[in-house]
Amino acid sequence: MGQLTQDGVARRIIAAIKDQIHSGAHPPGSRLPATRALAAEWGVSRTTVTAAYSQLIAEGYLTSRPGARAVVAHGLDGAPAPVDPPPAARRLSEFGQRLLALPPPVPAASARLADFRYGDLSGADFPVLAWRRAVNRVSLRRVARLRYDDPRGSAALRVALQGYLWRARGIRCSSDQIVIVNGSQQGLDLCARLLLDPGDPFLFENPGYALARHAFTAVGGVEIPIPVDEDGLRVDALSSAAAATAALAPATLAYVTPSHQFPLGGVLSAGRRRALLDWAARSGAVIVEDDYDGEYRHGVAPIPPLRALAPDCVVYVGTLSKTLSPTLRLGYLVVPPSLERAFAEAKRLTDRHAPLLEQEALADLLTSGAYERHVRAIRRKNAERRAALLAAVAETLGDAAVVAGTDAGLHILLWLPGVPVAREAAILAEARAVGIGLYPVSPLYAPGGDRPACVGLVMGYAALEDDALRRGIAALADLLTTRGDP
Amino acid sequence: MGQLTQDGVARRIIAAIKDQIHSGAHPPGSRLPATRALAAEWGVSRTTVTAAYSQLIAEGYLTSRPGARAVVAHGLDGAPAPVDPPPAARRLSEFGQRLLALPPPVPAASARLADFRYGDLSGADFPVLAWRRAVNRVSLRRVARLRYDDPRGSAALRVALQGYLWRARGIRCSSDQIVIVNGSQQGLDLCARLLLDPGDPFLFENPGYALARHAFTAVGGVEIPIPVDEDGLRVDALSSAAAATAALAPATLAYVTPSHQFPLGGVLSAGRRRALLDWAARSGAVIVEDDYDGEYRHGVAPIPPLRALAPDCVVYVGTLSKTLSPTLRLGYLVVPPSLERAFAEAKRLTDRHAPLLEQEALADLLTSGAYERHVRAIRRKNAERRAALLAAVAETLGDAAVVAGTDAGLHILLWLPGVPVAREAAILAEARAVGIGLYPVSPLYAPGGDRPACVGLVMGYAALEDDALRRGIAALADLLTTRGDP
Fold first, then answer.
1. What is the band of B83 on the pLDDT scale with cuts at 50, 70, 90?
2. Helix (H/G/I), strand (E/B), else coil: B15
3. Minimum CA–CA partner of A184 in chain B
4. Cross-chain CB nearest to A183 (options B123, B131, B352)
5. Considering only CA atoms, which of A181, A159, A162 is closest in space to residue A172?
6. Which residues lie closer than 8 Å to B267 by C-beta, 6 or more apart?
7. Is B234 left (phi over 0), alpha (psi -120 to 50) or beta?
8. Do A146 and B126 touch (CB under 8 A)?
9. Does A342 contact B at CB distance below 8 Å?
10. Contact at 8 Å (CB) between B186 and A354?
11. Interacting residues of B396 by C-beta distance below 8 A, sequence separation 6+
């Protein structure tokens, strides 16, 4: 306490002397009061004043010679605090300018009745106890040294994931090809930085996942939109898209969501998978396969990912955001052998490596089997939510809605054929007013291109319980009916 | 269990049919065996075969019409698995190429006697119990929805840091100006991406922190090395450096470590701070102030950071890697008000936001006072280590060593005036052979420029106990003496 008080007084003395120097009261070269005098003046011990002077000497405000009193340093004379140029003068890089030109993110609603925001999970579904047990277990492990880890991430987690990927997704890879990232978004950003230069074309699903598009366009990539239908990417359009953009270099990257196209929800057919890989083999392009909700399929067994078919030209992007929590920021890449070093070094440069504690906790969950048990449980739970949503839509909306993309994932697409897209903003506002959060598909289309004529909604259901789903759909039905009236 | 077995058989049936299709045994358009026949052949139920066929239909291998048998789809005909072009054909971006051209990182030694690697902390110093308590406390908080957070990070942590920065470092800022990053490295990378275009010059301490240099050069920045002396960056050299590089645009970014220059260890004097800020105000450049070990100073009170003097032109980079653990990957930026949006959007694009659990645990430690208690304890402990190291050096090495940079931080610089730099590699190898990990200062100098004539060692001590420090220095002394003998 005495220490603190003394420090506090010394700090005030330091501040006062600095003010006096800056105001010109103590010109450069002038001697400061003797410590005894200043101590008396402030009513403190000489030790306190000596500490203050030492600090001012260390900071370069004063200079001292043995046996002589401290004098004010030169080079400080009356210079006012630096004035900052107007903000406009802070030039952003081209990356920064492209970034700020991107459309703003869709704000999260606070919808009291039902928020259908895609990507949210229910807090009740998180395996709190299993996760706490795992965290406690790994946090008690004694390590002699805390030091930076492998940029690819924890060796234990990469080995555990290697096994999981083989068991659950049929992907065979070495743990050297796995890079743990801070959620799939970082994986996409690393792909963008390593594979695209400004002006490089990339193929992108239209409509597609906005933050992936942003990652590729922010580094200067030029989007070549490829249409999507109920079977995913229209691979037959690859050659016509290339022809239409003959002025550009050949695309070096294609982004796809084969197991559940985001947002339309199609599953990329085997024939299209093959054709896409043939295209990649011919063109030397890298396919970025975003398997963002590959754990969720309804009625059919998992389809082998592209990575399982062509390990040398696919970067597989996996995430824990749809099975554990988006707030954990845990994802992983499986990269082609020829790109191992590039991705590892890029991860090191970007942030050294992912946080170790979560990685080890996840490794623990994977090796104990708790993760797969949790996935089975949450898959069941989300299948129930999906069934409740589909039933509510069929019963309540009837012909007013056409449902698509229900074979997999954690969202469905709800087309409203009777509602022209010009009414979209009004519908969303009306919905928000009655407490429903709705998110349209239209902003996910390539900028400047065609959009569907009617309103389509991306309906995420993983954070909603059955009654909220039903109430939300009922309120939407009311709204559509009322609006239809004169 | 029954479910699993049936799934397993279905999977084998699926794989077998796919093989047959790929081998041409089932040409496109051909009908598959009736489910009854195949069920008999495999000795399984018809349900299992039906499930397998459904899956093959979903994957696009088969097509079906109601009432008719499934037929093999077209577009799969005998196409072999795609062949990957040679790895050379996978073109890396210019960023990727610059990245792989950087000098490789210094490998971590496994030195049995004493490893003086800078940046490591002792595992025994981590506040295991306080951290576990905080993690458990925050992991029990119920949240209705798990959703992406603010890209700048947890509001609770930013408010807690705002208070901490004012108490501990005299920095006044709004919590909107704080961006939580995955360790200071991510902060540096964000600065590089937002503030530098390829070809843009940046000012950099010489010698300086290698991974910061790499972050700036990987985005294409051109390093302008500014010499460093015992008072930190030689700000008087700014104008001559600018003149010498007149062909380039003016530098838009300067990187400095004012509270403890890495690696030479000087504390930037008040006069130089002022001159540097004047330069920034005149040139419109942004100063990146890396306060990597600002919590550790020995004998003198903390010096106000640049950010406290000129909030509008300084990005302050803080880290928890030197007080808690480098494996947590927790750091923060305090950005100028005019750059708030750019940094927030860059963080969102890069990885959405930092993992939430650690952020909330840290907020808990900060608000409960446990963090500052821990910092005081570890500061004391590291002061003891430093004293033990300095005593051992003085007693054992005597005139063979000149010590520098001892006023702050967690490392000292040990110059060996009698050992020419040509002997450096040999000395390091000999040291490693006897079990001491030594890390030279020479790779931290700007590529292609002058280096010191004698060997200098960056001696980190935060992971070593007193006896290891003493044994390590004794072994180094032995080695130097032996080597000096004929």
1. very low
2. helix
3. B351
4. B352
5. A162
6. A58, B231, B232, B258, B259, B260, B261, B297, B300, B303, B407, B408
7. beta
8. yes
9. yes
10. no
11. B470, B473, B474, B476, B477
Q: Does A60 contact B269 at a Cβ distance shorter than 8 Å? A: yes
A276: nearest Cα among A295, A248, A292, A253:
A253
- Where is pLDDT greater, at A40 or B329? B329
The Cα A358–Cα B356 span in angstroms is: 11
Whether residues A357 and B328 touch (CB distance < 8 A) is answered with yes
| Minimal CA separation from B273 to chain A, in Å | 9
- Distances A450 to A443, A454, B264 between C-alpha atoms, Å: 11, 12, 60
**Residues whose CB falls within 8 Å of the CB of residue B260, separated by 6 or more in sequence, listed in order:** B266, B267, B292, B293, B294, B296, B297, B405, B407, B408, B409
Q: Are A314 and A307 in contact (CB under 8 A)?
A: yes
Closest of B147, B171, B148 to residue B158, by C-alpha: B171
Interface of B with A in 432-461 (CB under 8 A): none
Q: How far apart are CA A299 and CA B55, in angstroms?
A: 9
Angle between helices A356-368 and B356-368 in degrees, nearest 10: 130
Q: How far is B191 from chain A (nearest CA, A)?
A: 10
CB pair distance less than 8 Å for A189 and B350: yes
Q: What pLDDT sits at residue A444?
A: 96
Q: How far is CA A249 from CA A148, A223, A252, B92, in A?
A: 40, 12, 8, 14
User: Torsion-angle region of residue B343: left (phi > 0), alpha (psi -120 to 50) or beta?
Assistant: alpha
Q: Are B29 and B74 in contact (CB under 8 A)?
A: yes
Q: Are A60 and B87 within 8 A, CB to CB?
A: no
Q: Give the whole-angstrom CA distance, residue A352 versus residue A148.
A: 7
Across A89-151, the runs of DSSP E, i.e. the strands, are 114-115, 121-122, 145-146
pLDDT for B266 equals 93
Instruction: Please name the member of B85, B181, B194 whose beta carbon is closest to the beta carbon of A96.
Output: B194
Q: Is the peptide bond before A207 cis (omega within 30 degrees of 0)?
A: yes
- Burial A259-269, CB ≥16 within 10 A → b, else e: bbbbbbbbbbb
Find which of B95, B113, B184, B252 to mutate to test the A interface (most A CBs within 10 Å of its CB).
B95
Q: What is the mean pLDDT of chain B?
A: 88
Supply the pTM of this predicted model.
0.84
Reduce the DSSP state of residue B446 to 3 states and report it.
Answer: coil
CB proximity A215 to B under 8 Å: yes
CB contact, 8 Å: B273 with chain A? yes
Structure token digits, residue A153: 């991430």
Residue A170: how many other CB atoms lie within 10 Å: 16
**If you write DSSP's letter for every residue of B282-298 in order, what string do you get?**
HHTPEEEEE-TTTT-BS
Identify the residue whose tokens are 């062509």: A310
Amino acid identity of A311?
P
Looking at this predicted complex, what is its ipTM?
A: 0.84
Going B404 to B405 to B408 to B411, the CA torsion angle's sign is negative
